Amino acid sequence: MKKKKLKIDACFSPYLYPVYKDDESIVVIIDVLRATSAICAAFENGAEKIIPVATVAEAHSYKQKGFLVGAERDGLPVDGFDFGNSPFHYMGEHVKGKTIVLTTTNGTQAIGAAKDAFKIVIGSFLNIDALCEFLLNENRSILLLCSGWKNKFNLEDALFAGAVTEEILNRTDNYEFGDACLALKYLYQMAKKNPNKFLSYSSHKERLAELNLKEDVRYCLTPNQTKVIPIYKDGALVKM
Ligand code: 3SL
Question: Which residue out of 13, 83, 105, 124 has the highest number of ligand 1 atoms within 8 Å of its CB and is therefore the one to mutate?
């Protein structure tokens, strides 16, 4: 009898997540620019736990209780908090051993949308090889959940989902690919020679460039800066 294949698919925004969700897939949250890159950087620098929250009000109540809190809206750090959403804010001794609360425009919303999934992990170019290795070893269906921008499609998360798809496809024929995933694989094949150039006209890259955050973009598109895989457990992200 023919072995039943696992599924891999991609969902372009948290808004579409209810259409794609199932009870068995591992959900990979993707917000390459910049939430999931910042989360990977924080764990690489020794953070103990990250509590993602949806609203600035929730973040504020944690701040009042004495937590370190990162808050970003529309690409900018929100006044009154310890950090914004740059990976560089999460590098150094000040995050070591700490629990950090984080709210961002899109990334933490995507985590919230998928919070009841079988398993949630965090993906970015910074941890792409370790992530793919983990996904292959788990031998389960996969949903690549792109955070997008305010529930709309964005190019950089799509590109990363395409990169993961290509890697999985190169390594095994155990998976059946959803149409979204296949489309993103072709997108990645067009872009992979120079992802930075491919993303030149992407709306969010331009938004960040206007905010003088070109260095953040460059770093977030640099593969394999860490082997850390953040995983969501009991309402918080921890290092796997
Ligand atoms: O929305 C988010 O989660 C962000 O990563 C957006 S930004 O890069 O900080 O603009």
Answer: 105
Q: pLDDT (tens digit, 9 = 90+) per residue, 197-209?
A: 888 878 877 777 7
Which of 15, 74, 85, 90 maximizes ligand 1 atoms within 8 Å of its Cβ, making it the mutation to test the pocket?
85
Instruction: Return the best residue to mutate from 13, 30, 33 for the ligand 1 pocket (most ligand atoms within 8 A of CB).
Output: 33
By residue count, the chain amounts to 240
Transcribe 87-103 into DSSP letters.
Answer: GGGG-SGGGTT-EEEEE
- The 10s digit of each residue's pLDDT in 30-74 is 999 999 999 999 999 999 999 999 999 999 999 999 999 999 999
Cβ–Cβ < 8 Å for 126, 224: yes
pLDDT in tens, 105-144: 999 999 999 999 999 999 999 999 999 999 999 999 999 9
Closest-CA residue, ligand 1 atom 10, reads 75
Q: What is the DSSP letter of 83?
A: B
CA atoms within 13 A on the CB side of 227: 2
| Burial track 16-43 (b if 16+ CB lie within 10 A, e otherwise) | bbeebbeeebbbbbbbbbbbbbbbbbbb
Provide the token pair at 161.
Answer: 């989902």
The yes-or-no verdict on residue 188 having pLDDT over 90 is: yes
| Gap from CA of 161 to ligand 1 centroid (Å) | 17
